[in-house]
Amino acid sequence: MTRRVFRYVPFTIEQDRTAEPEYEARCVSGDETECGAQSGTYRHPGPVEEWQRRHAQETRHLRYRRNFGDYAVMRPPAELAALLSGSGGTV
Fold it and tell me: Which of 34, 39, 44, 79 has the fewest CB within 10 Å, making it most exposed?
């Protein structure tokens, strides 16, 4: 039986700047059931906020579920990254 020891490595978690974030909203107004109207997905919050304003004007609905999505990258500390890049390994 082989034994492995895993040690704590202080990775940092950063937003992946190469991928665009996503914004969207869904109307959750309603007593018995939610309205369910959706803004669609955009790369900036502005169009979603404008959709909310228009939907509220048209329907008087005032409650929305907003979603923001992005991608994250885990970065090893510099000394570990140097070791990995020298050996061709990945984390």
Answer: 79
Please say whether the beta carbons of 14 and 72 come within 8 A.
yes
Of the candidates 57, 67, 60, the one whose C-alpha atom is nearest the C-alpha of residue 31 is 60
Sign of CA dihedral 13, 79, 19, 48: positive
Cβ neighbour number for residue 45 with a 10 Å cutoff: 14
* Cα 49-53-54 angle, rounded to 5 deg: 115
pLDDT at 19: 95
Tokens 């050996």, residue? 87
Query: In the predicted model, is pLDDT for residue 52 greater than 60?
Result: yes
| E strands, 16-90, in order | 22-27, 64-69, 72-75
